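Work package 3, deliverable 3.1, input record:
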Amino acid sequence: MSKFIDKTLSNAIGYIQQSIYSEKYAKRNGLLQGIDGRAKIIALLFLIISAVYAKTIDMLLFFIVLSMILAAASKIPLSFFIPRVWFFVPLFTGIIVLPATLNVVTPGKEIFTLMAIKSWHLSVTKEGIHAAAILIARVAATSSFAILITLTTRWNDAVESMHDLKFPKVFVLVLSMSYRYIFLLMDMVKNMLLSRKSRVMGKEKSMGSWKLYSPIIASLFMKAFSLNGKVYHAMLARGFGNEPQSMKKKSISIKSVLFLLLCTSLAIAMLICERQEVVQCLLP
Amino acid sequence: MPSPVIELHNVSYTYPDGTEALKNITAKIFEGESVAIAGPNGAGKSTLLLIMGGLLAPSSGEVKIFGKKIDGKMISNAKKMYEVRKKMGIVFQDPDVQLFSSTVRDDVAFGPIHLGMSMDEVESKVSDTLKFLGLEHVAEKHPYELSGGEKRKAAIATVLVSSPDVLLLDEPTADLDPKSRKEFVELLKKLKDGGKTIVIATHDMEMLPEIAEKIFVIDRENITEGNLRDVLMDEKLLEEANLDVPLVARLFKMLENSGINCDEISFDIGSATEKMAEMLSD
């Protein structure tokens, strides 16, 4: 058990440090990396909103394909991008959506029966599968665009863009400081685990090892709390008055403006198409 | 006569858990002085520095910074503390406390921005300070990526950028390698020659003769103020405070004990070299 926790923690720390901290894909010279953070966030948010309102599979598939084209143009290998999107979608949405495929939740044309007790039966319906597919495709499309933002934007640019886009200042400050200190706290955990490991001789009993982890958690909490007070003093000493300010006022490139216009026009056009389809469906 | 920049009168401080960090401390620091605060671990040096920097209000007693009485209500009021914050820079013992932004450049810019400087002024001051301290190559880096010495330099940059009149430094030479330490001492000398008031809380007695003229030896309840040279000669006081004399001074004392007349004890390597050359030529 001890080995299990040790490995889980050190792998989790290693993964977060490598994948977030190295900003491997955000540093590449691709399409989205060259777009101003503000334009990128607005453009992809528009696409996300449009995907949320999309009601047909075709349109959602279009958004999914579009996200893959953007990923490829941003030099993100599809072998990395697709599993990243599709790992979470079935894991979270798939489980939630399963009951919707059944006749008890979504009545309709039954495709096959899972269980039958006398006159009562549990079947999968065509309408249920359609509803589930729409939801899964919608989650996949929206999460693809969200993942594209995180993969192609350096954290500092994202924070600055949020500041420029008038996100609440305290929210931006908290995000920025979380990013700053998450690595420090991770290092603390890693060092505490190493120090503990260096003093453990022989094989540990499962219960004993579990008991030893609680003081580490408590100690980390206390260290984080103490750090919090000291950092506040350091901010106060440099003129902080509970109202965070930022430095950069960047001009926006023509390429970014064009990208923004293209994406927003596309998102709006898709929304209008969808609405017309709905209107047509309603017409006799 | 120079005016006092920091005045403490019967200052006591007790932490919320009941630990008494300081008791009835009275001290004055004057404009342009270079002052050391020395004492054993847990003597309250860092707490004293926070009080002197207008970041902690004393539990009792009176604190005046630039003649302005500081109390608990004022400390968190940015407007009322504006002048104090602008004129006073504090470098914390742990650079990870000082460097809280996501890049070194942002961290250096934090003070000037929050003190209301224009963006052009901020950008030029940040660039100048980074250049002055040789930190241009790490400007866009995350503080986590810096070495111990670079972190320390960056922490100093975050304060120097606002050109404060008073510098409060908490163990500034801790975790610096010999080269960085030497560079840092040279930097402090320059700042001192430029008329800045410098207050250093430290254990590093080797550095002090080169920078400080006055010393406060502190141990929670007691504070002994004196000329640095006189205090460094007071073996009993130094022993009680777990402090040591600089190696050079110890060498001169040993020479005197072995019957060699040294006239005057040197405390820093520069004057010691001159003195030794003089003695050898005689």
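Chain B touches chain A at residues 50, 53, 55-56, 75-79, 82, 85-86, 88-90, 92, 94, 96-103, 105-106, 109-111, 113-116, 119, 122-123, 126, 142-144, 158-159, 162 (CB under 8 Å).
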